[in-house]
Amino acid sequence: MTGNRVIASIALALALSACGGRVVPLAPGHTPVAQPGRQPVRQPARPAPRPGAGAGAQPIASGRAFDGRIQPASPLPAAPVVANAGATTAATAGITAGPALASLPITEAQAEAARQAFVTSCPGLMRRTDASGLTHGSDWQAACTAAASVPRGGARAFFASYFEAVQVGDGKAFATGYYEPEIAASRERRTGYSVPIYARPDDLIDVDLGKFSDALKGKKIRGRVDGSNLVPYYDRAAIEGGALDGRAPVLAWGADEAAVFFLQIQGSGRLRLPDGSVMRVGYDTQNGRDYTGIGALMKARGLLQPGQTSMQGIVAWLREHPAEGRAIMQENKSFVFFRELNTPPVGAMGYVVNGGVSAAADVKYVPLGAPVFLSMDRQDASGLWVAQDTGGAIKGANRFDTYWGGGAVAEATAGGMAARGTAFLLLPIGTVARLQPDRYTPYGSGSDAPAQP
């Protein structure tokens, strides 16, 4: 999740090799920096949560039934288009008109949950510069105004009245999952609690390269000053070897090395303290080093047997082989620093994310705050989501990371999530006509002509 930050079967192995850290809040108009893993990008102060999005907010009921078991589903077909291999945004990938929203299998409960999340996201959606190239903030005004006063039972009708579905590029979607983990920790170092959970180091420097050259606009690096030179910041091995002694506050001490490692991958979580109370932490920043997914490494080296590639299998192996496990974890040079939270997890927009409703996406292909309909080969992943988050490895068109909340069922669902199917982005009605007045392929026409921006 986010504040300022980076970073679960095939799913978690992919979340480990392709998905890391969570939620990355960005300043309005800024383009996110690709960060390894689900680790977030540090950014300026996030917008104040809207009513209902703070520490005392009631969670949104998602209307999405999930119990950790896989329930197959048949995804809708994507319209055939010729992919633009050089696309870097949704506008250059091209959009194709999707099916009528009224025809999509969206329940009223699911639509209502998405409507609430959309209302929360509206201020940021209208304020941010849309890096996808598809919309302007003002395009969302009518839908945002209407969303705030939808009568009971009218959520499905609201979406059908104010949105049209579009396919971005070839529409072929892949979705993984993330969740809010809970691990044992202590605010003070004591017997059984020896793994530091660090806050941002005093000597970690963020550099906006765009301030030095227009050619580097949007690019950022992190490092530290060594004499008169800016050098890469300490990697995971150096940090675990004591490089941060006296340089970074310790928020808490974890009881398990592997659990703290996975806390960094998720990007936020709950620390269960010895007295039973809970301390919430969220991503603050990252050391600037590249993320390496250890699940992929372990699988390639034959360390994981069939059935062990879930998060639970990986953690079990790491605990059974502490020395080898520590060395493998250190091959991921990326390291996440946290800050204490006084709210539930927040996403890249700075708003609280909700299990079964919020998802992470690439802002170059999905306007952050926009609704998305996923038609996947898993029933639990299918339906309406709202893109309220980003992830360092969630890159490209039709790549999503679904958020499942906290608890054992959320952990099992997210840890085994690897769904494939078709994605339809919901945009304000009239967007297709504005972008492609004479050149788009109607959904279901069977044309194989490329959709062009």
Quaternary class: single chain
Strand content: 15-25%
**SS summary, helix count:** 12
What integer value in Å does the Rg equal? Answer: 21 Å
Unreliable residue runs: 2-58, 446-453
Summarize the main sheet: 6 strands, mixed, barrel
Structure description:
It is a single chain. The chain has 453 residues and is an alpha+beta fold. The chain has twelve helices and 17 strands. The strands form three sheets. The chain has a six-stranded mixed beta barrel with strand order 3-16-13-15-14-17. Strands 5-9-4-10-11-12 form a six-stranded mixed beta sheet. Strands 6-7-8 form a three-stranded antiparallel beta sheet, with no helix packed on it. A hairpin with a 6-residue loop joins β14 and β15.
Essential attributes:
453 residues; alpha+beta; six-stranded mixed beta barrel; six-stranded mixed sheet; 12 helices; 17 strands; 23% helix; 22% strand; globular; disordered C terminus
Task: Describe the secondary-structure layout.
Elements: H1 10-17, H2 90-93, E1 95-97, H3 108-127, H4 141-147, H5 155-162, E2 163-168, E3 172-180, E4 182-186, E5 195-198, E6 205-208, E7 220-226, E8 229-232, H6 236-243, E9 250-254, H7 257-266, E10 268-272, E11 278-286, H8 294-300, H9 311-320, H10 322-330, E12 336-341, E13 358-360, E14 371-376, E15 383-389, E16 399-406, H11 408-415, E17 419-428, H12 431-435
Can you give me a brief rundown of this structure?
Strand 14 (371-376) and strand 15 (383-389) form a beta hairpin. It is built from 12 helices and 17 strands.
